[in-house]
């Protein structure tokens, strides 16, 4: 059994002399930093992306690999959309951790800076990276204020 399978995993104190707070940060472009320096190792950055979760008690964002966990700083959103696959039944999002998920078009919105956002993994906000936002263009209606997905119109809230 992995430690993450234990029902009290997120309530265990940090190892002796350590803290659950970290200097890991995720910026608005989906890049991880540690102590202010970019995480340049692609494998580590991808691992961090796969470890993004919410703490079950306080809702703060954490990185958890099921063996240990820590809090980290999120500048805008904890997840990012890298690309899309559009078909007649809907849209599949390609997330920055390498996973795919169907888009719920009801969750689409545009933030104050003009970035497209949606909700994935049930309740996690995700921001479309530039390339992914450009891929939405074929879905826009004539006004540019709604998308057409599987024949249905969804306003961009």
Overview of the structural elements:
With 157 residues, the chain is mainly beta. It has 2 domains: 16-74, duf1285 like domain (duf1285 like fold, Roll); 79-149, duf1285 protein fold, CATH 2.30.270. 9% of the residues lie in helices and 39% in strands. It contains 2 helices and 14 strands, in the order E-E-E-H-E-E-E-E-E-E-E-E-E-H-E-E. The chain has helices at residues 42-50, 130-134; strands at residues 21-26, 32-34, 37-38, 52-54, 61-64, 69-74, 79-87, 90-95, 100-102, 109-110, 116-120, 124-128, 146-149, 152-155. Strands 3-2-1-6-5-4 form a 6-stranded mixed beta sheet. A hairpin with a 2-residue loop joins strand 13 (146-149) and strand 14 (152-155). The longest helix is centred in the first third of the chain and has 9 residues, at 42-50. The mean pLDDT is 95.
Summarize the model shown:
By secondary structure, the protein is mostly beta strands. The chain has 2 helices and 14 strands. The protein has 2 domains: 59 residues, duf1285 like domain (duf1285 like fold, Roll); 71 residues, duf1285 protein fold (Roll).
Output the radius of gyration.
17 Å
User: What oligomerization state is this entry in?
Assistant: single chain
- Return the CATH class of the largest domain: Mainly Beta
Which fold name corresponds to the CATH topology of the largest domain? duf1285 protein fold
Distance between the termini: 44 Å
- At CATH's second level, what is the architecture of the largest domain? Roll
The SS-based structural class is: mainly beta
Number of strands: 14
Percentage of β-strand residues: 35-45%
């Amino acid at each position: 059994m992995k430690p993450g399978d234990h029902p009290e995993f997120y309530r265990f104190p940090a190892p002796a002399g350590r803290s659950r707070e970290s200097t890991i940060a995720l910026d608005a472009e989906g890049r991880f930093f540690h102590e202010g320096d970019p995480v340049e190792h692609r494998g580590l950055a991808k691992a961090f992306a796969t470890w993004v979760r919410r703490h079950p008690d306080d809702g703060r964002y954490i990185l958890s690999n099921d063996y240990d966990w820590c809090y980290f700083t999120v500048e805008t959103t904890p997840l990012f959309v890298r690309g899309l696959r559009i078909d007649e039944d809907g849209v599949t999002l390609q997330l920055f951790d390498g996973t795919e998920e169907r888009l719920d078009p009801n969750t689409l919105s545009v933030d104050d800076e003009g970035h497209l956002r949606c909700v994935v993994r049930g309740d996690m906000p995700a921001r479309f990276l530039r390339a992914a936002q450009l891929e939405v263009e074929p879905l826009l209606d004539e006004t540019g204020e709604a998308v057409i997905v599987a024949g249905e119109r969804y306003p961009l809230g």
